[in-house]
Each structure stands twice: as structure tokens, then as C-alpha cells.
Predict the structure.
Amino acid sequence: MRLALYLDLTFKRTNINPPYPDILINFASDQTEAEKPVGRDLVRGFFSAAKSNGMQLGELLEQEANKAGALIGEKGFMPAGHNGPYFDEETPVRNTAHWLFVFSVLYERTKDSRYKDFAEKAIAYLTGAEARPMKAAFWIRKNPEKDFCNGLIGQAWVMEALIKAAQVFDRPELYQLAEEVYLLHSFDEDLWIWKRLNVDGSYNSPDPTFNHQLWFGAVSTMLDRTPAAVEASSLFFEKIATRVKLYRDGVINHVSPVTRLSLKVKHPPKVVEGVVRYGYYQVSKRSLRKKAAGYHAFNLYAFALYRQALPDHPFWDSRKFKKMLRVTDRPHFLKQQKDNKYSFPYNPTGLELAFVRETFDPDPGKVEYWLNQQIAFTGEPGKSIMTGGTADENTARARIYEAARLKQDYQIEGMMHS
């Protein structure tokens, strides 16, 4: 307790937030009372040097993208991962789509032809037969015990990249491809949610995972020239997303039901499904508390995407949504992310909350705080800001794409140039 108090006092004087580097923790533990002022000067000097080796977010994105570009230049696609802590072997589609988003953004900002070349390789792969072998859903996952589409989220990740590339490179056929895949999905007008689309084009059951439905809806708003997508995404938001279940502190429940209990639903199997899902929510909400904390920022990121499409919706001023945001300011929220395999090492909570802050509370200091929290948890100097502590380096690197949506440039502290 004495060491923790000392560290808090010392690091607050240097404007550094936990977690603290091991080398300094070990140093601080050996300090006597008389030596502590000297220790503070050394700590201050350490972080002063770290800051001088920092860089802007845009520079960091370019650095990471150049490494990725070298890989896609060799193979024509990005290395596959295994869906982080789930260890489901994946095809290269997901990570290639993430990097296509980054390449598109960087070309839009810099007009550097390298990023256009990298993007063209990613586009060629994603529009080819290997990525979409039966001209239906993209083939994302290889686990024969699960769907190959990776639910709705797998398709949303590819669609958002295609839509961005269509805009940046004036490639309307990429928008049309995203639109085609969307329209192959079935929207259940009784339940206001989407069914999963199998790789062979057949329909699967509705995706039961709230964050999958939320992200698919948010990405569907980007199909702004497709009336069916605009209408369905708005219905989902109004009827399901705004009714999301929360824990008492404001964290979104990971198993928030996406099927509704209503006597107005006249289809018995749908009623049964609603009862089953609501029962599962009641039984599982306590055991999945930590997982929910690890996914909270990922959910808020999708809500931020919805905000761009529905800026005047009253939900943004509601007590519920303010509670969902407010919990991220509380010390216990950051504590819940530590040793959480679903948080920083997989879902990049720091990048996600940086975007959320820029969208809903554009204070540069708060945005930079979360960017630097990401680095504190997963940064590896000379390697990547994304790979520390992760079980899936390929996917972790690719998820830097979530920072590419930030409109402003921000200062990144303590990362050395590689």
C-alpha cells in the first residue's frame, strides 16, 4: 500500500497514469524517505525523455501501415489471425479489410501513391473468389463448429472497408459490392434484427450477439444510397439499440437480448427464441461481467458511428447513454480492463474510447489520455503499439484501423521510432 501511494504521488507530479513501467516500480520500491525527492526527479526525467521520443498519431499510423504494406506487397493479402482470445482460425479476409481501411485513409490524407498501391492489392484480394467463394457472404472463419461468416460482425468489417475505399478511390463497384452483400442479408421485420448470411448464400438464424447486430447496423448506415439499409439500420437503432441492457454502473451487458419479448410477435418460434434469449441474459449477466467490460468500448465505438448518421437523435442526450459514457471516467472501469483478455490486447479499448471521446466530448486531452492508455497496455517500443500481451499479433496490428477514423492528429507519448 505504501509503494502504491508513493507511485501515485510520484507519477501524478509527472502527469503519468498507471500502469507504471516495471523498471520504475522496482526502482521506487528501493527508495528511502530521504531518497524519494531524487527518485521523483529521475522519474520525471525518464518520462521527459519518453515524451521527446513520442510522435503524432498520423505518423504512427503511417509507420504501422508501411510495415503492413511490405507484407501485402509480398502476398497480395494480409496475414490471417485467429480472432484473438477465441482462437478460431481465420482466412486473411478480416485483416486485409482492416488494413484496406487504413491504406484508404492514409492515401486520402497524404496522396502518397504507396498507400494506393497497397490498397489496390487488398481490393484485388477482397473482390476475388478466394475471399467470397460462393458470391454470398465473405469467408472469414474456418472453425467447422461455428459459422464461416463470423456472424454479422465479420461481414460488417469487410463492408466498411469497401465503402471507404469506394469513396477514396472513386470506385463505385466497391460500394455496389458492399451493397450486394448487405442486401443478401435478411432483416426480420418482426424482431428488427438481421439473420446471418452463410458463405453458401443460405440463411442462418439471427445473430444473437448484441455487439454484432449493433456494428452491422452502424456500418449499414454508411450505405446511404441504399434505402433498405438506411431504413433497417434506423429501425434497429430505435427498437433494439436504444433499449440495450446495462449493469448498474453503465457497462453494456454482453448478452443484452436482441430478440424481444412481445405478444405482438405472432410467430411461435420467434416467441420461444425471445424467451430463451431473455432467460440466458438473466442467468449469464453476472458470469460475463468482465467480458462485458472488455467489450464496452467496442460497443460505444459502434454507437459513435451511429451518431454520425443520426446526429440529432434524442438518445444521445438520454440518461442511459450518458451513463454508458460516464462509466469510462471511473477508476474501476480502467481496473476492469487489466488482465482482461477481451480488452486492450484484443478490443483496443484505448483507440476505441479515443474515437468515442472525439465524437461525443471532443477534448484533446481526453482523447490523448486514451490513446496513451492503449500504448501503456500494449505498446512494444521498436515493434508496435498493438502487440504487447496479445494472443493474436496479426489481428492486433490490424485493429489499429480503429484509430484511423480520428479526425484530428494527437500526440502519442513514449513510443520509440522503429
Notes: Confidence is low (pLDDT under 50) at residues 1-32, 34-52, 261-265. Residues 128 and 135 are 10 Å apart (CA to CA). The beta strands are 55-56, 187-188, 193-197, 203-206, 411-412.
